[in-house]
Amino acid sequence: MTKIDKILRGGNVINVQTRSIDQIDIGIDKGKIVLGATDAHEVIDLKSAFIAPGFIDAHMHVESTMLPPTSFAKLSLPHGTTAAVFDPHEIANVLGIAGIKLIMDDAKNMPFDAFFAASSCVPASPLETSGATLLSDDLEPLFEDERVIALAEMMNFPGVIYDDPEVHKKIKMGLRLGKKIDGHCPGLRGKDLLKYISAGISSDHESITAEEAIEKLEAGMQIYIREGSAAKNLAALLPIITKENANKICFCTDDRHPADLRDEGHIDHIIRKAIGLGLDPILAICIATKHVADHYELTMVGSIEQDKFANLVVFDDLQNPSPKQTWYRGELVAENGEAIVAIPSSTNWSIAKNSVHFPPTITQESFALDVESKLIRVIGLVPGQLFTEELHLKRNDEDVLKMAVIERHHNTGNIGLGFVHGFAFSGGAIASTVGHDAHNIAIIGDNDEDMFVAATALASSGGGQCVATNGKILSLLPLPIAGLMSDAPPEQVISQQHAVLQAAASLGCPLDDPFMPLSFLPLSVIPQLKLSDLGLVDVDQFSIVPIEVCPS
Asked: What structural domains and CATH numbers belong to the chain?
């Protein structure tokens, strides 16, 4: 037999097909797995370490890491992630198809399998102003790239249920092309859920209770258990998993901040947490690998089998799998917590910069609201979740801060005003151009001056996150790429993020990262109460509602 490139010998191989551990050698030749080989140019002794397929994130927005794909890979590869399904709808909502193509171009030629879902909801709903509108005819050419494997999360579930023609045209286009249709239907139950599924939608990552997830699972959906930086649903949903239904379960992060990615991990973090909560380790690894590959029909990844890509993770402790080596297509790319290969980017981001347009009609006076003596609707933050509550409070009640969302794409001058409970700081304002999904400027503060100062600082910097106090900027994290990402090195971005978090804490904010929940408060497709540039959104009614509560 001809010598192959290398053999990984003496490992305990996680067989995700049989959910067992095999003591076999893994041959690698030309980036692919060769089983049964005995002769190689290089033999590497794994010394009884465990070896698993590379981990796969079933659904994430790479923009949420504040890093483009090449920089994201530098942080995720050391954690054993060798593939992900990216939905670039954050940058799509700012720049449209041009933004999607920038992300796809940056993801080429890096040691990471970046798959894509074509962003289905740009804008996410008609209750906000985004930077672009993408119709089915705009999206279809994206599928000419073999990396585009799905139509991304269909967040406009009312459009599905109430038969919006363009929504159904997108779904039918994806199905006609033989692609999966990803879902997004928080709280949807009963007949509405069945109609949503019957349109051809096959997955959901928005369940927050076991009961909701079980209903969707029994109706045939693939359930993605999400554990990211904002929404943490693993503990609530883990009880739904059985050996019999686990093939219908995947793990995803959805949104992951760079410091969390570096310090806690990525999919490996979810695996470890799931094991700690009682899930069988091999089953957890199956959910993080084979089940994603099977759902999306990714035939070259997800398991250690003959002729599949040699994407592998090596670790010592099955009960606490912390990757010590990551292999991508037969090459060692990360070891002992560090990426050990160069991952250069040749992407020209110039067209994605200067994306924040601050209308001159917006002044400090634009933030004024006369509701002092009235009962008002207040967005109630729910820690660790994306959904919010509708509270009825007065302006001078404890922990009621003002919120504003300023349209930043078309110079419309739109400004939505409201109030929020749960941030509990004083003496300043925080602001961000990361505001899902339209990514307008979102600001929270206890005085109009600092709110205006924070908003104008982000306009001047081309986007980012900042903290203002006493009429001055205390700290700024620049995100010049579409107001979402930085082309600075990951460690610099993490350092800048740490600085703005420390600045927010200095105002008395008790949240570890107030910018993460702030980024979801404009999201007009997750119940209950949100704020867009068009006003206060009652997501259940799917309509704009007044701030004042009308007397009954």
From this structure: 55-298 (3.20.20.140), 352-545 (no CATH)
